[in-house]
Each structure stands twice: as C-alpha cells, then as structure tokens.
C-alpha cells in the first residue's frame, strides 16, 4: 500500500484497512528531502475500542490453533520479507532518514526475530514432576494471555515492532500495534505481507496516535499486557499506569 502526501494512514482492524475521518492528523516526513509523504491520524478511545474488540474477537480462534499451525504463517511471511527486503529497506530510509545500510540492519534484525518465533512450539512445552512432595505432583502449562499491545518508538521502524508481534502471535495472543506516528509506513507494508501470508483477520491490528491513544490502550479492560520501547520517563509512566490498570507491562527505557 502506497500513500501520497494528501493521504492518511489507515487503521488495520479485523483484517481490513479502514480510513479514519474527522480526526486531527500528524505529518509523516521524508527527512532527507524535508517533504511530507503521508499523514497519520491521532486516534482516541473510539478507535482503540474498535481495534481491541477485533483482537479480542479473534483470540479464541487463534488461541485454539495448534502452535505448529500458528507458526506456518511466520514461515511464509519470513520468505515474503526476504523477497521484499530491498523495497522495505528503501521505505525505512524514506520515512526515517536512515542510510540504506542502516535500514538493512534494522530489517535484518527484525527478520531474525521472526525466525526465532518459528521455533516457539518447542519453547511452549510445559513441565511436570511427579511426587514433588508426598502425594503431590507438579505440572506447569503455558497459556496465551489474550489481547496484547505493542507501543513503539521512531528510531527502529522495523526492528522494535518485530521484537514484539512475532513472539506474541506465535504464543497464541492477538496483537494491537501502535507504531510511532513519525514512522508508521514500514509496519503498514509488513502487515500487508502478513495478510498475503495468510494471517487470520483480527490476529494483528494497527492503531495510530499519540498520548490519547496510548492512554486508551493502557486503560482498556480487555488489554492483558503491554510492551513498550522508548524514553525512560515515558517507560516509567507506562509501567505505572499500566500496572495500576492490572496489565502485565514490560517497559524498556533509554531508547
């Protein structure tokens, strides 16, 4: 999907691209030229409710899909990412300003996470120990949490989101991605490849925005867990607010 300067990045909700109307928007720049290449909507609670509902609706089906079947999508998208590698790297360079060599490193590290996630089924195995105490057996099982959220910075448009969603969906969760409003186009292109790879509708969704959008995600009762990468002050605030709302939070600062 390509956009022009007068077009706005759509949401990805339940397997469909959806235009957002009537919302304030932020401009996406090509730093090397100083030109506007797209606009991104500043979404709020209404849009967050919609994408979380789509993820929640897809969760029972995805949770019950055997792990070895879930990762088949990742095997396929890994091949598609390799086929589109140079095109994606040019897109990263255009919206972020990285050199092409830096963009290649960004995407290559992300693809390595997809490769790792393809091996998730063996890591999801539980453990058991009989007679751990008199008359007591111990069994450990691993279960997906539900709807999980990824909130990403601008400095690695491919790598940081791909730290998050491949592992999350391989483990049986459904995912809501909030990319940086400065670099939303890379993940838009990657999600189009996930569509082509056969990812079921609702398993991965995209919502755009700033603080209002993030606050709505942190407070949503159907969100089970949140991953964040960004500055330390924001990481602390996301950890505080997410924890107060009963979420599992991993917040990586210093980025």
Indicate the low-confidence ranges by residue numbers.
none
Mean pLDDT, all residues: 95
Count of separate structural domains? 1
Oligomer: single chain
Please list the strands of the largest sheet in the order they lie side by side: 9-8-7-10-11
Query: In which range does the helix fraction lie?
Result: 40-55%
Q: End-to-end span in angstroms?
A: 29 Å
Strand content: 15-25%
Instruction: Identify the overall geometry.
Output: globular
Question: CATH first level: which class?
Answer: Alpha Beta
The CATH superfamily is identified as: Aldehyde Dehydrogenase, Chain A, domain 1
The CATH topology label is Aldehyde Dehydrogenase, Chain A, domain 1
Q: From the 3D coordinates, which CATH architecture would you assign?
A: 3-Layer(aba) Sandwich
Q: Largest sheet, if any?
A: 5 strands, parallel
- Radius of gyration using CA atoms only: 19 Å
**Extended strand count:** 11
Enumerate how many helices there are, as a single number: 9
